[in-house]
Structures are given as C-alpha cells and as structure tokens.
Amino acid sequence: MKKVIALLLACVLAFAMVACGGEKPDVKGEGVMTYAEYAAAALDTEVTIEAYVQAKQGWWEKDGVGVATIYTQDKEGAYFIYEMPISQDDYNKLTAGTKIKVKGFKGEWAGEVEIMDATFEILDGNWVATATEANAWLGTDELIKHQNEFVSFKGATIVASTDANGAEAAFLYNWDGSGSQGNDVYFNAKIGENVYTFTIESYLTGADTEVYKAAEALAIGDVIDMEGFLYWYEGMNPHITKITKAQ
Question: Do the domains 132-245 and 25-126 match in fold?
Fold first, then answer.
C-alpha cells in the first residue's frame, strides 16, 4: 500500500508541474555553477557551467587552431561561448540541444558578457529552448538579465536606415552600409515608441539561409515578428534567426 501511495503522489506531483507550466530544473554536476552563480561571478574569474547548445557560428581556424562561437542556454539563463577551441569533428557533433560542460573565464566586450579561453566536454542530455517574448522587457532593467537568451519580438515596424550614400534603405550590409551581400545585415525596427537595431550575423546565418533572404526582402513599413539571440553591443543588438511578416 505504501508503494502505491508513493507512486500516486509522484504522479500527482508530475501532473502539477505540467499543469502549472513547471519544468524540472537542471541538476548541475559537482563544481558546476548555477546561472545565478555565473551571473554574480566577477569578470576575469574562472567559471564552469553546463548548458545546451542552441546555435553555433561557423567553424574556422585562428592561429592554426580551430575555433567556434557557441550560443548556449540552460533553463535558468544563457551563455555566449566566444571562439572556443574545437576540432571540426567535435564542432559537427554540437547539434542543437547537445549538452556540454564548459570551463573558461568570464569576460565582457562592449557590454556583451561571454566565456573566453574555454574548454569543453560533451555530456548526456538534450534540450532546445523555445523563444520567450521580449517586448515587455524593452526599456526596462529586466532586459539585460536575459542577455544571450533565445527570444522573440512581436509587431516590429521596419523604419529607414541611412546607407553609405546617405539614402534611405530598409536594411544595410554592415552597420554603416559599407558592405555587400554576404556581410552582416543590419536593420532598424520600431517597437512601441522606440527604435532598435537588429542584426543578421553572417557567421551564424549566412546569405544562403532563409532569415538572411527575408532580411534582404524587407521594405520600410513592413511589420514583422522575429526570433533570435539577445546579443549585446553597446546595448541590445539581437542576432536574428527568423523573420516572419506579422499577420
């Protein structure tokens, strides 16, 4: 009877978690930081985290060593792993959802908090985040707390940028319009009363991807929904991975 009661209680608890939208938290390995501990850690100190790969920039060689920049997240927050040394074979193993343990140093560049000089190992486990709508965080102190998370923006209206010749444009190749197809794509969009800059990061989603082509098809006045990673450069500068025309 006790076993039956214990089983029923476990089932009730599991049902309650689902019904309330609860999600079982990650169990961290020994010596691994929670996201709160990572966020509180001082810059230039060593950090150890476990998280799930959400996306990755292209693999390349730097000083003869393969490196890649990885977007990762757990169920509490997100971590941007900058130019992590990695072989191309291991890079190919890091598909979306792959769980990894990363040790490195917490750094910051232009407001973007990242893990540098990282080493990693692949762990058992798989999880892919769903985009959390960020509109309500805009213009508040809450926004930066979600840096690097996979988020969405709803009902953004494309406004004019100024290209290298001083003309109005719906988007630019490079931030100042000095580039060409294949470079990063920048565009401005108004949400509420404020205008924000969004980026198609070419190392993440290049010219052959659906989102890059969608950015090239933008027109001033278009109303769009977006998904992407809440990257930071002197303020919010999301790396957008999906664009759809708002209905």
Answer: yes
Per-residue pLDDT tens over the stretch 55-102? 999 999 999 999 999 999 999 999 999 999 999 999 999 999 999 999
Torsion sign across C-alpha atoms 98, 99, 103, 109: positive
Domain ranges of the chain: 25-126, 132-245
Q: Which two tokens mark 56? A: 């990755």
How many CB atoms lie under 10 A from the CB of residue 28?
Answer: 17
Please name the residues in contact with 130: beta carbons below 8 A apart, sequence gap of 6 or more.
150
Strands 172-173 and 46-56: unpaired
Please give the radius of gyration of the chain, using alpha carbons only, rounded to the nearest integer: 20
State the CB neighbour count (10 A cutoff) for residue 41.
16
Tokens 């098809």, located at residue: 217
User: In the CATH hierarchy, which fold is given to the domain comprising 25-126?
Assistant: OB fold (Dihydrolipoamide Acetyltransferase, E2P) (2.40.50)
CATH of domain 132-245: 2.40.50.140
Tokens of 144: 């930066």
Structure tokens at 72: 């990762």
